[in-house]
Amino acid sequence: MFHDYRLRPMLLSEEKHIFQDDDYFYEIKFDGIRAFIYVSKDEFVILSRNGNKLTNQYPELRDIQKQVFNHHVIFDGEIIATENGIPSFSLLQKRNRSKRVSEKLMEEVPVSFVAFDVLYDNRDLTNFPLIKRKEILNQFLDSLVFHKSVPYENGPMLFKMVKKLGLEGVVLKKKNSLYTFGCRTHNWIKVKNIQVDSFLVHGYIENEKTYSLLLGEERDHALYYVGKVSVGKNHPIIKELKKKAFFHNQFVNFTLKAFFIRPVRKVRVRYLERLKSGVLRHPVFDE
After folding, report:
1. CB-hemisphere CA count at 13 Å for 231?
2. Mean pLDDT for all residues in the chain
3. pLDDT tens-digit map of 145-197
4. C-beta of residue 78 within 8 angstroms of C-beta of residue 32
């Protein structure tokens, strides 16, 4: 199992609202890159959730080899970059966009690995209940690049803290759950800290199966592009927008070709956060 790179992470179901259940642990949902780390004294491999090798992108994580001594271990967790102590996906993207990982880049955008599960420790642990796997995980010490996710007992209180800090959300995990590779079950549940706002539609792009609505907002007497959101080709808003006369592009920060209309129609959009550029992350149409 230790050399089986075909393994894929256990996936999460989703609920819209947090609930309290003593059968579950509650953990912070870290905003980063889900990854398996295969590590021993002599071997080190990082795989993304889709099985892509990321080992060379995060060389500083090799320090985790010091944590396992003579063990062969598979960790499941999240690679994160933080800004003022808060995980920042936009900062992590800056790191990932660079073709060459230099010492300077590692200093400017350091990363760490948050381990929330251990699947192998000289033996297969996936048939152990989560509460037992957590006990085994706790035997590995934290370091500058390796941290263990903390399980909480009070879900609503944790979610309240997550909302206050602007974090991505909360993950609920059944204490007795076994680890099932590549499966999405109700044993692991995510509750996102979603933000909802209204934005102007200034145009659209026709794709093969969908339309992308171009979203904008007025700032300092100018119209700024903040992202695009997909809707189906038969969605009523498409018929509505196509009746409007074409208009010139008023975005100050968007130059791609599109069908532009006068920016008067607003739509509600759900999203996780804003990147530093002001663009919405994971926007979803909410009407």
Report:
1. 23
2. 95
3. 999 999 999 999 999 999 999 899 999 999 999 999 999 999 999 999 988 89
4. yes
User: pLDDT, tens digit, for every residue of 88-104?
Assistant: 888 898 888 788 899 99
Torsion-angle region of residue 282: left (phi > 0), alpha (psi -120 to 50) or beta?
left
Q: How many CB atoms lie within 10 A of CB 243?
A: 8
Rg of the chain's alpha carbons, rounded to an integer?
A: 22
Hey, what amino acid is at 63?
A: D
Amino acid at 255: T
Q: What are phi and psi of 113, to 5 degrees?
A: -115, 125
Give the C-alpha separation, 116 to 118, whole Å.
7
Q: Please report, as a single letter, which amino acid is at residue 86.
A: I
Give the model's pLDDT for residue 94: 82
Contacts of 203 (CB under 8 A, 6+ apart): 213, 214, 247, 249, 258, 259, 260, 261
Give the start-to-end residue ranges of the domains of the chain: 11-192, 195-285
Question: Residue 227 forms beta bridges with which residues?
Answer: 215
Per-residue model confidence as pLDDT tens digits over 38-50: 999 999 999 999 9
Determine the Cα–Cα distance for residues 132 and 119; give it in Å rounded to an integer.
11
Tell me if 49 sits within 8 A of 94, measured CB to CB: no
How many Cα atoms occupy the beta-carbon half-sphere of 13 within 13 Å? 11
pLDDT for residue 273: 85
Q: Do domains 11-192 and 195-285 have the same CATH topology?
A: no
pTM of the predicted model as reported, rounded to 2 decimal places: 0.82
CATH number of the 195-285 domain: 2.40.50.140
CA 242 and chain centroid, separation: 34
Q: 3.10.180.10, 3.90.79.10, 3.40.50.1170, 3.30.470.30: which CATH number matches 11-192?
A: 3.30.470.30
Q: Please, are residues 245 and 261 in contact by the beta-carbon 8 Å criterion?
A: yes
